[in-house]
Each structure stands twice: as structure tokens, then as C-alpha cells.
Amino acid sequence: KEGTKGIEGNNCRLRHRIRRAFRRTCCFSKKMENHIKAFELAFYYINYGHI
User: Fold this and answer.
1) HSE value, Cβ hemisphere, 13 Å, CA-based, for 42
2) In the chain, which end has fewer C-beta atoms inside a 10 angstrom radius, N or C?
């Protein structure tokens, strides 16, 4: 159960960090390069805990 808890926590953090990719607000970018960088930053934050 504890292993699942950790994985679900990571999934939740990923959903919250990448939410900007799915809504069209002022933080939405039309450039694919910016989307890729946002995903890379989110994965780095989740894996290492800081930016």
C-alpha cells in the first residue's frame, strides 16, 4: 500500500504541475518548445524536489 501511495502522490503532483498545458489561459503557450520545457521542469521538480 505504501508503494501505491507514493506513485499516486507523484501522479497528483504531475497533474497539478502540467495543468497549464490543458487550459487556455494567459499561461497557455502556442509554441511547442515552451510546452516541452514546462513538462521537463515538472518532471525535474517531481524527481528531485526542487528547481
Assistant:
1) 18
2) N
DSSP state of 24: -
pLDDT tens digits along 16-42: 777 766 666 666 667 888 878 878 887
Q: Give the residue from 11, 28, 10, 12 showing the smallest Cα distance to 20.
A: 28
Q: Is the pTM of this model over 0.70?
A: no
| Amino acid (one-letter) located at 34 | N
- State the alpha helices, DSSP H only, in the chain: 2-18, 32-48
